[in-house]
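My current task is to audit a protein record that another person submitted. What it holds is a sequence and that sequence's fold in token form. Thanks in advance; the entry in question is below.
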Amino acid sequence: MFEFFQMLADWYMNHMNYFTITMLMAIESSFVPLPSEIVIPPAIWKALDTGDLNVYLVVLFATIGAVIGAMFNYILARWLGRVIVYGFAESRVGKLFFLNQAKVEHAEAYFNRHGRSSTFIGRLIPGIRHLISIPAGLAKMSIKQFVLYTALGSAIWHTILAVLSYSLYTQRELLKEYMHELSYVLLAAGVLFVVYLIIKYRKKKE
């Protein structure tokens, strides 16, 4: 799976345009775990670096893609129903996309707890963002409300990513200067994360 995403990232860097941004964000907004953080920042940097893209249009087409992907989840969940959706999450194909019943249950519990506004708020929360459309479909939420809340939440998230990307772009010389030190920090963070996962796994087995 990692090799596939690496190949996809390489392809994207060589074919970056509004269509590919829309397409990849549609994938990110479905049940495929493709982070928007690897789609929008490079596009913002290209817009600032070369002028081939427009920053505002990057956010717009990313949001259109997110709505398309979310609609795919919504329609499937509404059409197939809870039993089949949960069965797919536990299937080999579902697990290939890092899905499981617990994740879908978590998204559905979040939706039930916060109501229709969760479709808006959920777009801003990692881990919930690409799954919140499934419980919306299962609950047969109004399509108009679903599209509106999804578009607003996605637009806000993409704007946040764009602003952060712009900030990093303006500090790129400083980042280059301290890249060596930064690599050690990232390595340490990675090691700590692995240790955390090991401890969490052992606690579950006890």
In short: The radius of gyration is 18 Å. The mean pLDDT is 76.
